[in-house]
Amino acid sequence: MSELILLRHREIPDINQLQVYRQHGGFEAFQKAVTSMNPYDLTDLVKDSGLRGRGGAGFPTGLKWTFIDYENWPHYVVANADESEPGTFKDREIMEGNPFQFLEGICLAAFAIEAKEAYIYLRGEFWQIAGFLDQKIADLKQAGLLGENLFDTDYSLNIYTHLGAGAYICGEETALLESMEGKLGQPRLRPPFPPSFGLYGKPTVVNNVETLTNVPLIVSRGADWYKSIGTEKSTGPKIFSLSGRVNKPGNYELPLGTTFRELIFEHGGGIPGGKKIKAIMTAGASSSLIIANEEALNTPLDYESVPKVGGSLGSASVIVIDESVGIDWVLRKTLHFFSHESCGKCTPCREGTFWMRHLIDRIHDGKANWKDVELLNEVALQIKGKCLCALGEFSIEAVTSGIDRFKDDFRAKAPSEQNVE
User: Fold this and answer.
1) Are residues 174 and 388 in contact, defined by beta-carbon separation less than 8 angstroms?
2) Using CA atoms, how far apart are residues 302 and 58, in angstroms rounded to an integer?
């Protein structure tokens, strides 16, 4: 890409200051929407752009907005800034470096669904960012860009920050809403879905930080411009959070459709010590393990192509694993995380992650035989499709794919013939 669209602070100094942001077209899109567009036209524009949710699910953003219930009022927008997925750190950089574009995206989403109140839900560890955003929101109010009768119209909007308590489960949108209401952060049984029964039982749209940050430039430059970036079915730029065994970890904003090879070797600088790449996780700890062969490395990073090599794009939190890392070690790290973060509401996830953790500890410590590996896989399959939310499903992705695709790692740790107490 010739310019950065989401990480604009890397090219425009001090764009986190309102004056600088406005000098570069900031809030012109919001003014245009409020003064010369109706909410339905704005929603159609975002639909036409092909923007898909950047939080992991990849659901079409404009289509999500159309699900809002217009028989029930008021409406709310909630920005999901929980960002608790291991290996994901893109939203934090946006909020710290380019906050006003994110806030303008919230404003546009609110206008699209005729909401007059919007909230930013941040993970508990982001308390400093919450204070920073509060200052930026105050700047917008002082400039007349938030509050009552915006741009001399009858439209009014206010934005508030809300801190969670550092629970991974609250990245799931219904658990997030429960937390905002002062309840335990546990998923709701669905349906109903948030666009009909969300915050305080009212229609609510929940969008990720990166998703919303795309919207201002879609409105100002048009859907065709946005579709010129990326691929036909996966449009626009994407921030790839690259970590693990790479020389230059970090956030890289690239068009969707960029290959694994380009991301890891051209932008990430390759593998330390020239070691061989072994496996790739594409969505943080919630990923299956992709065998890093030539086919995988040449695969475009988009929503349609990654499943063809046994993974999913998810939040594009790409974790690189080289030949020096045992897959049993990877599973141990992920399972300790998911076992700790399970909210405990549904039995398959609560009990399943507990027993998977104990089994992988035995395997990793060399105290298991092959029957323990088979049991680990069996427990994972018993969790599959039986949980209230995706956490249980996420917890088994690395397990089932790791055992299936990297058997030699487990054979080395758990021989077929070994007596274990």
Assistant:
1) no
2) 10
Cα 61 to Cα 106: distance, rounded to the nearest angstrom: 13
If DSSP codes are grouped into helix, strand and coil, which group holds residue 280? strand
How many degrees, rounded to 5, is the angle at CA 276 between CA 272 and CA 277? 90
CA distance linking residue 231 with residue 124, whole number of Å: 36
Q: What is the dihedral of CA 254, 256, 262, 268, to 10 degrees?
A: 50
**Residue of 166, 176, 93, 181 whose CA lies nearest to 123:** 166
The whole-angstrom separation of Cα 74 and Cα 4 is 36
**pTM more than 0.85:** yes
Mean pLDDT over 294-320 rounds to 95
pLDDT score for 1: 61
Whether the CA torsion 139, 142, 143, 149 is positive or negative: it is: positive
Backbone angles phi, psi at 278, to 5 degrees: -110, -50
Closest CA to 147 of 159, 136, 135: 159
Could you give the angle at which helices 370-383 and 390-405 cross, rounded to 10 degrees?
A: 150
Query: What are the E-state strand segments in 293-393?
Result: 317-322
Q: Which tokens belong to 260?
A: 């694994």
Alpha-carbon torsion (341, 344, 349, 355), positive or negative:
positive
Query: pLDDT averaged over the chain?
Result: 95
DSSP structure string for 203-262: -EEEEEHHHHHHHHHHHHH-HHHHHTSB-SSSBSEEEEEEEES-SS-EEEEEETT-BHHI
Has residue 351 got a pLDDT over 50?
A: yes
